[in-house]
Write a structure and sequence with these properties.
alpha/beta, Rossmann fold, protein-glutamate methylesterase activity, CheB-like, chemotaxis, protein-glutamate methylesterase, hydrolase, seven-stranded parallel beta sheet, five-stranded parallel beta sheet
Length: 340
């Protein structure tokens, strides 16, 4: 079982690390660096079953940071000693209040045993395949391999993602060619303050040009445009981006639903829609609308998802023509545009 400890203090982080490493089934990593780019790189290289966040002082934008960590790693976050900080109430967040960080404290062993027992009792299915996409099975799709489709049919690719999306998007964009003849527009659920460094990391890893979308901007081939974290994003018939400051949809902003609906109405059969890992149902009905309008639609398969929510709902709605692993998504796009 893979566990990542994120600590503000080297001393306290090491104490928890040494305690958990005594368990033979625990593979424990420790990070003192709160730098977002470092965490992005960790998520690309490793899959974790739990993140243990050791709090020893005030954390700026605490709730947003927790949401970011959940989107990035796609697993439960065990929160030690944060009872005085305002944290969201979500099922993926498990607080361990009044956790003594001093190993000489009389309650340290008891609290540590509680933490270890919780981890053992809440083991998730094997996720070792999630950063090894080329070995994942084809999934539930009607097609098991990419299909040749005329490249001139398409003018844009639209992607929606939530929990677990960052590592999948990193894989896709690292493996797609920089001279892709169409633009890509993306909605990834993530707190607004974390979007810029996330984009910076992706752009450094990818041959594509990756940026935050600007209102009124004309999309260009080989470019990837991410919705900013505080606006919905839509696409017009002439390929221009429009940012909309409207209430959340499905409790999220930006919403995949906004993007997919606009793409369906503006481009119809000239678009490709891809719905990736994530909780809830954001974008599922609109992927079905894209399919009805003649677009090519893809949902990520269950085997490679961190959370099979959004793509799972889309599949139940018969919204996806293809159900693919990330590796197959890359191969399908390359095949369509003769880039294999």
């Amino acid at each position: 079982m893979n566990i990542l400890i994120i600590a503000q203090s080297m001393v306290y982080g090491t104490v928890i690390e040494q305690s958990l490493k005594k368990e033979k089934d625990f593979n424990v990593s420790l990070s003192f660096n709160k730098d977002q780019l470092v965490l992005n790189q960790l998520s690309a290289k490793h899959t974790f079953d739990f993140v243990v966040f050791v709090v020893s002082k005030e954390v700026e934008d605490f709730a947003d940071r927790l949401h970011f960590l959940h989107q990035l790693f796609g697993c439960s976050i065990l929160l030690l000693n944060a009872e005085n900080l305002k944290a969201p109430r979500d099922s993926w967040l498990v607080p361990f209040p009044n956790f003594p960080l001093n190993p000489t404290d009389e309650n340290f062993l008891t609290k540590t045993r509680e933490l270890i027992q919780y981890i053992k009792n809440n083991q998730v299915k094997d996720t070792s395949h999630l950063n090894n996409f080329d070995k994942t099975p084809a999934g539930d799709g009607t097609l098991s391999k990419p299909t040749s489709i005329h490249k001139n049919q398409f003018e844009l690719i639209a992607i929606g993602a939530s929990t677990g999306g960052p590592q999948i998007l990193n894989y896709l964009f690292k493996n797609l060619p920089g001279d892709l003849p169409v633009p890509i527009v993306v909605v990834q659920h993530m707190p607004v303050n974390f979007i810029p460094l996330f984009i910076e990391w992706l752009d450094a890893e990818s041959p594509l040009h990756i940026q935050i979308a600007r209102d009124g901007e004309k999309t260009q081939p080989g470019h990837v445009y991410f919705a900013p974290g505080d606006h919905h994003m839509t696409i017009s018939r002439n390929g221009r981006i429009k940012l909309i400051d409207a209430p959340p949809v499905h409790s999220v902003k930006p919403a995949v639903s906004y993007l997919f609906k606009s793409v369906a109405e503006a481009l119809g059969p000239r678009a490709i829609g891809i719905l990736l890992t994530g909780m809830g149902k954001d974008g599922a009905e609109e992927l079905a609308l894209m399919k009805q309008k003649g677009a090519l639609t893809i949902a990520q398969n269950k085997e490679s998802c961190v959370v099979f929510g959004m793509p799972g709902v889309a599949i139940k709605l018969d919204a996806a023509q293809f159900i693919f692993s990330p590796e197959q998504i890359v191969e399908q796009i390359k095949t369509i545009f003769n880039k294999s």
